[in-house]
Amino acid sequence: MLTKPLPDLPSWIRHLSQQEIPILAYSLERMHELQGKFDDIDIRDIAHLIRHDPLLSLRLVRYLESHRHNSQITDVTTLDRILLMIGLSGFFRAFGHSLVLENQLVHHPEALEGCRRVCSRAYFSARIAETIATRRHDLDPAELTTAVLLHNSAEILLWVEAPTLAIQIASLLKNNPGMRSRDAQKQVLGVTLHELHLGLLQAWHLPKLLQHLLDDRFANEPRVRTAAVATNLARHLGNSWYDPGLHDDYQSMANLIGSTAETAYTLTQNIALSTAKEWQWFGIPPAAAMLVQTAPELIE
Fold this sequence. Notes:
Elements: H1 9-17, H2 25-35, H3 43-51, H4 54-66, H5 79-95, H6 101-104, H7 109-135, H8 141-149, H9 153-161, H10 163-175, H11 181-189, H12 193-203, H13 208-213, H14 222-239, H15 246-257, H16 261-276
Helix pairs in contact: 1-12, 2-3, 3-5, 4-5, 7-8, 7-9, 7-10, 7-14, 7-16, 8-14, 9-10, 10-11, 14-15, 15-16
């Protein structure tokens, strides 16, 4: 594990891109349960499992790219289609003995909680993105769901591979309420997580479309805006249902789905309550646990 920052962005990308990625303990437990019912399950059961775990989702997308055949001339951009290509037996063979996050960070409980929190946020943001995309009659909502699940990959890997540094960033932000996240990251790491994230997507040769959907240089495109709004909403709600950034988030969501900010708030509330039922995957309180009556100024 890293305890000091690496000298530059290429060094960070090279180091993190070569690490074996663990998965959530609950995911591995569910995987073994499903493997014991092999004759009674199908692709949808496995896809449902993977969609809850951003770490496993990233591993699956990377696996296909690293085993890509010359005959595969088009990118595969959704978890379901990747599973169809590798099959159930191939999935269990490749991922049935994965490293577990909780074992990896057993001596770093604060980092484990931080990493679980980001994983929970990533899943929540993917659910928001799926809802927005469906309301907008997007060409393929599953593509957006997959992309948004991967949006926090750099932050998750930082908690895993450099827990001390990740804790330093969190402490900086906590002790300096007005500080921007990217400034704290730059101060501790010498790079921002956004720079690192885009670099990792390229280093892993992930599908161009997934890279495009997560690149804020294309923020004028509705699909890219959908990914951004979903990740921003989940991040702000992770702080509080009174976070000052939520006013703009609800309005941006409303603009995308052609509704009012009040409708966007109610929709977000419903997603949060639904997602909360699956809290055991991450072992931390979900955003809905902090749900209170929203202050009127947030949605006016």
